[in-house]
């Protein structure tokens, strides 16, 4: 222990003796360790931390699926009830789906986000209310209106009054009894922390009974808890068997849902972001490797100046192990110092990274540089100290005592140029890999920004409000007609319309339909995206009407039933034939309880993207909202001649004048929604681009240092060459040739590694291949020019050496 303390004390003295060297090493390490800590904090929050529930490893998610296509989907209520009663592998199975209700009877009506769940949500999660109780089994039945509220809602609307439990509140004009308050830390689902309440599926049973009985309506998510000792694979097989039996029993509705898949809840939550985070983690790890390579080269160069010191220690009896330990202690101290600086950098960079990522990655908002992350940074510091210090320490311990202790003599530490060269080749190769990845993501992101979404997002304001059944069940079409007339009359409004589902909000519905010209069994009906819309919606979005007409106010309940389809629908289901006048039967009723009516196609509209990262357009059907009066919530879209945000107060005032108990929510511009969709690709592009830039800078600095060191060692040789008549251009070419060999080898290895690893980025790219030759060529050119510039400066210095001065140096 005393020896180690002595080594550490000596290491600190060495750092003080060479402040410039120490500063360069600390900055280099701080960049690498800070970037690694930032990325790892996000990876830890998203992928490594367990879900905040009891024994989260036993929580699974069940999805309906099609056996041959392996496509997963949500589940219908009847299928869920059968899954719950027939499975043998779960203690509990809970269904849930998003909902939104308006809290009235308070100072100002508030729209709340919530979940409709089955009664055993809390037993499944192992959670308990902070106040009150959870749901009871009988509270799933029709007529039971009970709710659990969040701690935030209890604080903001009830003043943290304990008497709120047992009180009645008005949600969408209906009375609900508050049975409990959840703890402040409770979130369900984890990806939706804004939820304010949880109520039971009795709401669906009462307000829309077809949802409970309809086996074709798949909109529920299902989470379950494995029985002790049961594996995910066993549960998966259990539910596949149940789904297969249901497909045979209900062929009309379950033919396309004849299988099921079971995965851990954490796996489902992470989803496609796993690839993104792993790519970033590998990339930032490579940056640290490059940084360690630079420091290793610096240490090798510094050991040349300390050869006499090391030789003297050896002559006084210090063994090789003792010398290695001393030099390694110095490296560890440098590593820890760099790690401390890296933690400071991570504190600054993590919030910036989280702002960049937004809500595009679940649980990322929980990331931060906390105690575990400091421990991670300390561990990385120690590992880095060993990585960049071990080779120089071992090489330096092999001193030639006689040669070194001679006056002016030096041992052959300098003879390990092959190691420095190998480090540079590796750095250039890694720089090519990272820069190529960044180049591909930049190209992909530019492709996304240039993609035509099928509408014009500029100068469009969007918002939403709900018209509850308790007041508008029979008068909804009249209300919306009056509302849109007044909305279009507002100053600065050019056009206005509404849609049940809006592009760029990750919300859509699939609806099957019947085509009399292509009859198929009931269970094999084709399906397409579906949206009720109002007249003027397409013109407001400036989506091109390719054929036929738009909906008008004349398309009401008593008029012929009509529909509009998009271009993708015509191509896929009508095979490009003239669609106008064709009769189809979408599976959407008109709210009267009658069977869905036949509808005539009166128009064809261009394809509108549901999301900015959509790879192909989906077939879509649009129906007049006035012929579907049971749809109580429409997004409003308003095209303006002024700043869209400036209309928000006028819109709020208009809706409040029509009904003061209807709050307007989710006020955003369409451009904001489009940019929000691009947040994850932008996050990947910026971070990987930053890492590639940092790697390139470190590589250039490392190459500059190695060439400069090589020139300093060859000063006498160069002086002799010049004295014997060599041209300065010859010396310049000689140095550049040596550098070109290293650069060429590095680029060649980097291209091979890039091509070998190209598949890792495939799922993250849009409009470009993972082996884009133009991108790879540009990357090679950038790396080669940067490296050449780093080598050219010391080469010029070599060519400018004065022969006589060089010959006197030794």
Please characterize this protein's 3D structure.
It is a single chain. Strands 3-4-9-6-8-7 form a 6-stranded mixed β-barrel. A 6-stranded mixed barrel has the order 14-15-20-17-19-18. It is built from 27 helices and 22 strands. The chain is elongated. 44% of the residues are buried. It folds into 4 domains: 1-53 and 268-410, no CATH class; 67-257, no CATH class; 428-451 and 679-810, no CATH class; 468-661, no CATH class. Helix 11 packs parallel to helix 23 (679-713) and helix 16 crosses helix 26. With 810 residues, it is α+β, with helices and mostly antiparallel strands. The model is unreliable at 407-415 (pLDDT under 50).
Summary of the model, kept short:
By secondary structure, this protein is α+β, with helices and mostly antiparallel strands. It is built from 27 helices and 22 strands.
């Amino acid at each position: 222990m005393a020896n180690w303390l002595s080594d550490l004390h000596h290491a600190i003295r060495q750092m003080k003796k060479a402040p410039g060297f120490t500063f360069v090493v600390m900055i280099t390490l701080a960049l690498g360790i800070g970037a690694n800590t930032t990325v790892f904090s996000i990876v830890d929050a998203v992928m490594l931390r367990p879900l905040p529930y009891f024994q989260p490893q036993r929580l699974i998610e069940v999805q309906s699926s099609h056996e041959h296509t392996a496509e997963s989907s949500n589940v219908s209520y009847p299928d869920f009830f059968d899954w719950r009663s027939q499975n043998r592998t779960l203690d509990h199975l809970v269904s849930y789906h998003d909902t939104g209700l308006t809290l009235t009877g308070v100072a100002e009506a508030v729209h709340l986000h919530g979940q409709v769940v089955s009664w055993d949500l809390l037993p499944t999660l192992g959670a308990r209310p902070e106040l009150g109780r959870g749901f009871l089994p009988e509270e799933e039945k029709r007529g039971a209106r009970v709710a659990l509220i969040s701690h935030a809602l209890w604080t903001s609307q009830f003043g943290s009054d304990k008497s709120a439990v047992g009180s009645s509140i008005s949600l969408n004009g209906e009375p609900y009894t508050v049975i409990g308050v959840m703890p402040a830390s409770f979130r369900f689902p984890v990806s939706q922390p804004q939820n304010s309440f949880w109520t039971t599926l009795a709401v669906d049973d009462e307000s829309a009974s077809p949802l409970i009985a309809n086996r074709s309506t798949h909109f529920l998510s299902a989470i379950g808890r494995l029985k002790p000792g049961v594996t995910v694979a066993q549960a998966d097989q259990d539910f596949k068997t149940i789904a297969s039996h249901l497909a045979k029993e209900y062929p009309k509705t379950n033919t396309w849902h004849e299988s099921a898949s079971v995965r851990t809840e954490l796996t489902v939550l992470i989803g496609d972001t796993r690839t993104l985070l792993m790519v970033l983690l590998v990339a930032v790890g490579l940056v640290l490797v490059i940084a360690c390579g630079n420091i290793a080269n610096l240490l090798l160069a510094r050991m040349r100046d300390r050869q006499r010191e090391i030789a003297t220690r050896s002559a006084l009896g210090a063994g090789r192990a003792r010398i290695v330990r001393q030099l390694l202690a110095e490296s560890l101290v440098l590593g820890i110092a760099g790690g401390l600086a890296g933690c400071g950098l991570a504190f600054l960079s993590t919030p910036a990274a989280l702002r960049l990522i937004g809500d595009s990655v679940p649980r990322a908002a929980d990331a931060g540089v906390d105690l575990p992350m400091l421990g991670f940074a300390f561990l990385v510091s120690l590992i880095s100290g060993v990585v960049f210090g071990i080779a120089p320490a071992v090489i330096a311990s092999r001193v030639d005592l006689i040669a070194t202790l001679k006056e002016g003599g030096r041992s052959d530490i300098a003879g390990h140029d092959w190691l420095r060269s190998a480090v540079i080749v590796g750095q250039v190769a890694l720089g090519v890999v990272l820069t190529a990845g960044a180049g591909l993501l930049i190209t992909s992101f530019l492709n996304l920004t240039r993609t035509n979404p099928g509408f014009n997002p500029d100068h469009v304001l969007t918002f939403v409000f709900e018209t509850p059944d308790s007041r508008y069940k029979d008068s909804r079409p009249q209300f919306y007609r009056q509302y849109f007339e007044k909305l279009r009359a507002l100053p600065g409004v050019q056009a206005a319309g509404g849609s049940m589902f809006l592009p760029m909000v990750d919300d859509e519905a699939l609806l099957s339909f019947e085509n009399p010209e292509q009859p198929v069994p009931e269970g094999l009906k084709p399906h397409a995206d579906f949206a009720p819309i109002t007249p003027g919606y397409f013109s407001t979005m400036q989506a091109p009407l390719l054929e036929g007409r738009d909906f008008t106010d004349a398309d009401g309940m008593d008029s012929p039933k009509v529909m509009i389809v998009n271009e993708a629908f015509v191509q896929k289901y009508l095979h490009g034939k003239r669609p106008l006048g064709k009769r189809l039967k979408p599976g959407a009723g008109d709210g009267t309880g009658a069977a869905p009516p036949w509808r005539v196609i009166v128009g064809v509209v261009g394809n509108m993207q549901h999301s900015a990262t959509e790879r192909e357009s989906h077939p879509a059907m649009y129906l007049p909202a006035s012929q579907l009066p049971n749809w109580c919530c429409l997004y409003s879209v308003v095209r303006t001649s002024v700043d869209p945000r400036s209309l928000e107060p006028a819109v709020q005032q208009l809706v409040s004048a029509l009904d003061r108990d209807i709050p307007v929510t989710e006020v955003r511009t369409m451009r904001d929604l489009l940019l929000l969709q691009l947040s994850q690709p932008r996050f990947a592009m910026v971070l990987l681009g930053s890492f590639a830039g940092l790697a390139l800078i470190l590589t250039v600095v490392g190459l500059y240092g190695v060439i400069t060191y090589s020139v300093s060692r060859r000063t006498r040789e160069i002086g002799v060459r010049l004295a014997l008549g060599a041209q300065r251009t010859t010396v310049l070419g000689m140095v550049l040739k040596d550098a070109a060999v290293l650069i060429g080898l590095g680029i060649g290895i980097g291209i091979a590694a890039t091509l070998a690893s190209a598949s890792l980025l495939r799922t993250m790219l849009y409009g470009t291949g993972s082996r884009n030759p133009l991108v790879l060529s540009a990357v090679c050119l950038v790396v080669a020019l940067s490296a050449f510039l780093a080598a050219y400066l010391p080469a010029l210095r070599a060519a400018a050496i004065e022969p006589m001065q060089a010959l006197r140096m030794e």
